[in-house]
From TrEMBL:
Domain of life the protein comes from: Bacteria
Protein name: L-ascorbate metabolism protein UlaG (Beta-lactamase superfamily)
Entry keyword Iron: no
Keyword tags: Hydrolase
Keyword presence, Hydrolase: yes
SUPFAM superfamilies: Metallo-hydrolase/oxidoreductase
Start-end of Low complexity biased regions: 1-41
């Protein structure tokens, strides 16, 4: 998430071939700390979430297991030219006990709080890894990686039918930040008989989210990366959604359930999760929140 770290990482990417063929995901069921909800014979059921920590969320959807931004390192520091990111808490579920992952939704690879060493080591074992085109060129050790441009679709075959994943825009800071923060993507998931899901990635812009809402008005589950990340590069400008912006983004889909993630576990988050909850409650929207408990599986 450190802007200068992005510049350093992006300096000399190594090109890697990508394929236009739609990847096929392999269905799996990961271990969980609570019982999974009932599903039908082909795996349909209400989505479940398990918060590993930070931006890392295990999401079961339409019979497939998705994982957002894998981070499994223990606490430590990550120096960069402009600052040092500090991880305060390790994962609630370690990679070895997480279970198989069908699809990784990687918003970007250039910041350690979205992809750390242990998370990167997990990628080759995933059925499919979806990310930005630039990240795909760097992840040469991952045979199933695919880079998606904004609004590009990929269709994944699963036991409950096809899941269409669409890459959607994200802006990791104020307008014009991209040369420093690097490219970032969000995702939308759709499947017949399932709620439409929006995963924001490290997006800090309400305007960008509004563009997504205009094109995808039926989002029923919004996973929002919040916490008002601050590294000092853009003083006073969040690199992820602050509480008020998260509320505004939630308002774009008034009937959606909201799952906030990436609000804790790192020193550069300036707003605690409690402030986000208070902000939603003060606006009469507290009932829409599904705040995940680390390491526990919940139906949403």
């Amino acid at each position: 998430m450190d802007p200068d770290a992005a510049a350093t990482t992006d300096a000399a990417p190594t090109a890697a071939a990508t394929t236009d063929a739609a990847p096929t995901a392999t269905a799996s069921t990961a271990a969980a700390t609570t019982a999974e909800p009932p599903t039908d014979a082909v795996g349909r059921g209400r989505p479940t979430t398990t918060l590993v920590g930070g931006p890392t969320l295990r999401l079961t959807y339409a019979g497939l297991t998705f994982l957002t931004d894998p981070t499994f390192d223990e606490p430590g520091t990550y120096p960069s030219p402009s600052s040092t990111l500090t991880k305060l808490r390790g994962p609630a579920v370690d990679a070895a006990t997480l279970g198989p992952v069908d699809v990784v939704l990687l918003s970007h690879d250039q910041h350690a709080d979205n992809l750390d060493a242990s998370g990167r080591a997990l990628l080759p074992s995933a059925g499919t890894v979806l990310t930005t085109p630039l990240a795909a060129t760097r992840l040469t050790e991952v045979p199933t990686v695919r880079g998606l441009e904004p609004w590009e679709d990929v269709t994944l075959a699963g036991p409950a039918g096809d899941v269409v994943v669409t890459a959607v825009p994200a802006r990791h800071g104020p307008e014009g930040c991209e040369p420093l923060t690097g490219p970032v993507t969000g995702f939308v998931l759709r499947a017949d008989g399932e709620p439409t899901v929006y995963v924001s990635g490290d997006n800090a812009s309400v305007d960008v989210a509004a563009e997504i809402a205009r094109r995808v008005p039926d989002v029923a589950l919004a996973v929002l990366f919040a916490g008002d990340a601050q590294t000092g590069r853009f003083p006073g400008e969040p690199l992820t959604l602050d509480a008020e912006r998260a509320l505004a983004v939630a308002g774009l889909w008034p009937d959606a359930v909201v799952v906030p993630v990436h609000t804790e576990d790192w020193a550069h988050f300036s707003q605690p999760l409690a402030l986000l909850v208070e902000t939603f409650e003060a606006a009469g929207a507290g009932h829409r929140l599904r705040v995940p408990t680390r390491g526990e599986t919940a139906t949403v």
